[in-house]
User: Fold tRNA-specific adenosine deaminase from Thalassorhabdomicrobium marinisediminis.
Amino acid sequence: MSFRSHMDTALEEARAAAARGEVPVGAVIVAPTGQVVARAGNRTRELHDPTAHAEMLAIRAACAALGQERLTDHALYVTLEPCPMCAAAISNARIGRLYYGASDPKSGGVAQGPRVFAHPQCHHAPEVYDGLSAPECEALLTGFFAARR
Ligand SMILES: [Zn+2]
Assistant:
């Protein structure tokens, strides 16, 4: 059940990102104890930073809060399949489990495209669970892009 509530927190972050005019993606990092250590939504526009994806911001915040460069045995919940950049960061951070909602045929790097975790150069691959709250995650993205057309 913590399962579901962490994705709900990621969805809250995604909705907050949409309200800021950002692509609605949200991410949450959970410690092995079950405690949320960081949560973030996309801020690429606000920060003028193409790397300010929800996952990157959450990883940076979690590492800063913990004073360490690795998030061993931590879980990352994100509303959209991570892109190749974020997948590489997830691997470098040694995150133990990745849960994501919507799949991303256009920019995803986990189940499609470069499939970063399956690459021979990938030194650490998390356990991956996809499709969590996928309808809600997808509806948020579809609604956002429809409204901007
Ligand atoms: Zn990304």
In short: The pocket of zinc ion is lined by residues 53, 55, 82-83, 85-86 (CB under 6 Å). The radius of gyration is 14 Å. The longest strand covers residues 36-41.
